[in-house]
Amino acid sequence: MNASNTGPILSVANLCFRYGPLEALCEVSFTVEKGDYIGLVGPNGSGKTTVIKIILGLMPPGNGTVSLFGTDPSAFEERHKIGYLPQKLTNFNPYFPATVKEIVSLGLFSKKKFPKRILKGDAELVDEAMTLTGVIDIKDALIGELSGGQQQRVLVARAIVNKPELLILDEPTTALDPEARENFFQLLRELNLSKNVTIILVTHDMASIGKYASKLLYLDKKIIFYGSFENFCLSENMAHYFGEFAQHLICHRHD
Amino acid sequence: MDIFSALQYSFIRKAFIAGSLIALVCSILGVLLVLRRLSLIGDGLAHVTFGSVAIGLLLGLQPSFVAIPVVMASSLGIMKLMQKARLFGDAAIGIVSSIGIAGGVIVAGLSGGFNVDLFSFLFGNILSISSVEVVTSIILSVIVLSVVFLFYNEYFSTTFDEEFARITGINVKRINSLLVVLTGITVVLAMKVVGIMLTSALLILPAVTALQIAKSFRNTMILSSISAILSVLVGIYSSFLLNLPTGATIVMVNFLFFISAFLSGRAMHIKLS
Q1: Hey, is the C-beta of B169 within 8 angstroms of any chain A C-beta?
Q2: What is the pLDDT of residue B161?
Q3: Under CATH, what is the fold of the domain A10-92+165-254?
Q4: Among A106-115, A201-210, B110-119, where is mean pLDDT lowest?
Q5: Do residues A33 and A246 touch, judged by C-beta distance below 8 A?
Q6: Per residue in B109-160, pLDDT tens?
Q7: Domains of chain B
Q8: CA A48, CA B77: separation in Å to the nearest integer?
């Protein structure tokens, strides 16, 4: 499923980054192939979100290079190829007067030139994304009226409305209850398997990663492990980082 | 006197035209500012307008012509303070606002007091608006409305989620700078309608009125516009009939609309639940 003839979607080489005197990333290198489903894990402050922001072009890399679809992220123009789901909405206003449909439509603007206008044909894309994420029935509801799980699905719909090739999700399940979390992971798997969407999922939920992702990238300012779960489960020194019980739990579920 | 009789007076017609357009601009920008938690930027820039008016009077220039570039520069100054000095919006607005007032007081002190009615700048007098001011208001309002119309979706996106807007390729820094510059122009225009002291009311009240009952972002813009224009028309007409200060009457009508919308919103909420 991970094979590709067109080269890697994402290539990170010798990436380093500092917040003032604090080192956030050191010599991080990895590639992502089309169809990969990568679980990006690591302790708090390990540089997961920093890597994501550099990949998305929100921050410049300190040292090293990042190539997104063969282009530097700061110069990358085909933004519709990327879908992004943030950890949480920055400065989210629960009284923001926007409907589900309006918010999902926001994802369309990465494809549009000035002046950015929503055209008749766009409605189909919006409806399709809302149907896939199960929010079509609440399309006229205000975002503030929804539960955390429903809001998350709306943001997923916004992220996939352009049918992106790469979907990046930063701890998307922190606000979800177990049932909503399971449904959410099922949705991601569906996108990965049936739509061949490449997924990078930042999470602390090791069990779900073991169950759904094809690769594990363990980051702690540098790469501790990057590879398939088969290799992860065979790796003896992983127990040192995760604990024997956790490693067993993840590998067991994955199998 | 009915409204048709009142319309026979040219100063009423001019006040209706200029007041409605300025209110419309304020209401549109107000929605964006309120949702970005920058409601008080209008107040801060109005204080800068006070300082600019003082400079204009000292130099013998038309106060509005001095105020527009100074307020635009100040609005960008607020943005820079927020970005470079890592200040929250309210602190940056507070700094620029204080400097505006302090500058105005110092200039007034240096001049030994002005031989003009400062009261009209502080509290506005739309009924005394000149034909030149009406034309200026129309031109500037059309410019501001055109820019907001052209960048409507960029403003919607950045207001809801700035980070996501950046990822979709929107130049958020440019869009935000444009917004505060437009706000600066609008604040100077609003000075004539309700005065320096009450300018922020024109930006905030129609927006928060719409937010009580709106069912979408577009709906919020429309309701805010309707509320603002009606407030100005009713306010001007009422003040003319009852011989009340026009600016203050417009603000009070705006507040009555807000209370009505608040009660309607509560009633709808209770009915639904």
Answers
A1: yes
A2: 92
A3: Rossmann fold (3.40.50)
A4: B110-119
A5: no
A6: 887 766 566 667 888 888 888 898 899 999 999 999 999 999 999 999 999 9
A7: 3-272 (1.10.3470.10)
A8: 34
Distance CA A172, CA A155 (A): 10
Query: What is the residue extent of each domain of chain A?
Result: 10-92+165-254
The nearest CA of chain B is from the CA of A227 a distance in Å of 28
Place of tokens 């959410």: A184
How many Å apart are CA A28 and CA A38, to the nearest integer?
15
Q: Measured between beta carbons, which residues in chain B are less than 8 angstroms from residue A99?
A: 215-217
List C-alpha distances in Å: B237 to A123, B2, B13, B22, B246. Answer: 44, 9, 11, 16, 9
Per-residue model confidence (pLDDT) at position A5:
44
Q: Report the gap between the CA of A76 and the closest CA in chain B (Å).
A: 9
Q: Which of A103, A109, A50 is nearest to A80 (CA)?
A: A109
pLDDT in the model for residue A3 = 41
Which residue in A219, A216, A197 sits closest to A206, CA to CA?
A216
Helices of type H across chain A: 48-55, 100-106, 122-132, 148-160, 178-194, 206-212, 229-234, 238-242, 244-254
CA A75 to chain centre: 20
Helix (H, G, I), strand (E, B) or coil at A232: helix
* Number of DSSP helices (H) and strands (E) in chain A, helices first: 9, 9
Tell me the two tokens of residue B25.
Answer: 């601009």
* DSSP characters over B210-231: HHHH-SSHHHHHHHHHHHHHHH
Inter-chain CB proximity B156 and A102 less than 8 Å: yes
Which of A56, A103, A115 lies closest to B167 in CB terms? A56
Tell me if A93 and B35 make a contact (CB, 8 A cut-off). Answer: yes
